[in-house]
Write a structure and sequence with these properties.
By secondary structure, the protein is mainly α. The protein is built from 13 helices and 2 strands.
């Protein structure tokens, strides 16, 4: 997969796209629509092509270039759904659009024949009229739709969703940014993040929460988190609050598998003579938190 720099907090799920955020039951009943079959077929094709690309060794420059072209074609096939998901996230942030117009834009992108000639014309005019404001909104929101960007992680080859027990990433590793709510107070994406999570906290809390949401049952989760950022008491409380969201996964984790991975990591660290240096680095970073207020 190519690298992305979008906001990983702001993501729409496939099951949410049929209904605009904030729309009433009456609005939904009056303008129902479903992307299911068409999106399922597109996901199936994207997954098959992704698996094929990843299974081929990149041994020559010509192969790499051909892979890039194939990735672009996959991206092109997914783009209409990414555009719909972007509009959905913009609506979460307060972008002015009603459910009827949202439905019309969505269908015009992926199922235009379900609209009359007049409706398709209206959809083109509406898309042109909101284009600049929508693009300005998306420039600071920068959504990243996990299910559409990594369909092979969440969907089977036939486009159907994996069962809940097997859905998600096998492993999630990272070093989340330690940016407080005070430091990020001027960021324009804060309202959308609070709406999606139901709360607003320091960013490393959101990253940890998101990590557990994206992890499959029994998956491996590894984040560097601060235990003494503002002292041991508050540090313990902050870490415990994050870990509590993933307690259920602990009971599905293979002890033998975890031990094997940990042992391999330690052996490799000893072989490369970096274990001591890493320990010193971790201790220095933890206690540096006493002198930082971010």
């Amino acid at each position: 997969h190519p690298l992305h720099t979008e906001n990983s907090f702001l993501s729409a799920q496939r099951s949410e796209l049929y209904r605009l955020p904030g729309s009433t039951e009456e609005e939904v009943e009056q303008a129902t629509f479903d992307l299911g079959d068409q999106l399922g077929e597109t996901l199936s094709e994207a997954i098959s092509e992704t698996v094929s690309i990843e299974s081929e060794a990149s041994t020559e420059m010509e192969v790499v270039k051909e892979k890039e072209n194939r990735w672009r074609r996959v991206r092109t096939s997914m783009q209409p759904y990414l555009d719909i998901a972007n509009l959905w996230i913009a609506a979460v942030d307060g972008f002015a659009i009603d459910h009827l117009h949202y439905r019309m834009l969505a269908l015009s992108s992926v199922k235009p024949l379900q609209l009359s000639t007049e409706q398709r014309r209206e959809a083109r005019e509406l898309k042109a009229s909101i284009h600049d404001n929508l693009e300005e909104r998306l420039r600071y929101l920068q959504p990243f739709h996990w299910e559409l960007e990594f369909p092979e992680v969440f969907y089977q080859l036939d486009g159907r969703s994996f069962p809940a027990a097997t859905r998600g990433f096998d492993a999630i590793l990272g070093n989340p940014p330690y940016i407080s709510t005070h430091t990020s107070s001027e960021e324009l994406w804060r309202r959308a993040v609070e709406s999606r999570f139901g709360y607003l906290e320091d960013l490393y809390v959101h990253f940890s929460d998101l990590g557990f949401r994206l992890l499959r049952n029994g998956g491996v989760f590894g984040f560097m988190v601060s235990a003494v950022r503002r002292g041991p008491v508050e540090g313990f409380y902050s870490v415990a609050k994050v870990i509590a969201t993933g307690v259920n996964d602990i009971f599905h984790t293979s002890v033998r598998r975890t031990y094997a991975i940990a042992l391999l990591a330690v052996q490799e660290s000893i072989r490369r003579k970096v274990l001591v240096a890493f320990a010193v680095f971790v201790v220095a970073m933890l206690f540096a938190g006493w002198f930082l207020d971010v």
